[in-house]
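Why protein adenylyltransferase? Reviewers of the renewal asked for a concrete example.
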Amino acid sequence: MTNPEKASLNEHILTTERILDLNLNPIMVYSVKDILAIHRYIFQDTYEWAGNYRQVNISKSGNTFLPIQSFESGEMYLNSLITEFHKKANSRDELITSLSKILDNLNYFHPFREGNGRTQREVIRVLALSKGFMGQIAPEINAEVYNLYMDGTVYGNLEKLEQLFDKILIKI
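Here is what the prediction returned.
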């Protein structure tokens, strides 16, 4: 095993343990500050910058993410979506619509250098939980969930994200 492989395996083990901890003691999401806290918790053993915004503009596979110069307005907009979610998303259909918008915008924001996907999935899980739903996005377990998640987030396709949430949201 090479050093990068060992580092990747180590990160996977440490972050998986932290995510399991969050299943028992979730950090509830009321603002972007809570999203930063989730990232900090998951990656505290791996990155010294865990829970802090990235300091450079990034892109992935030709898709650019929100420029760091726009983080303040991005944070304000995401906070408004989260506030609206807590106030208005009460039916399953409203949850599907609202969670799709939040995930789409959080993915475009892409606030961290690494760990955005795992953080996004935890944010969605706790938002769904706050409304009495299980909303576990587990792309590694289900190919259809993986494809809907990737198509929805990579291409900003709200219809795919709505299909994703229609598939995974379960009343508890």
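The first strand starts at residue 59 and ends at 60. This is the kind of structural detail the renewal will allow us to pursue systematically.
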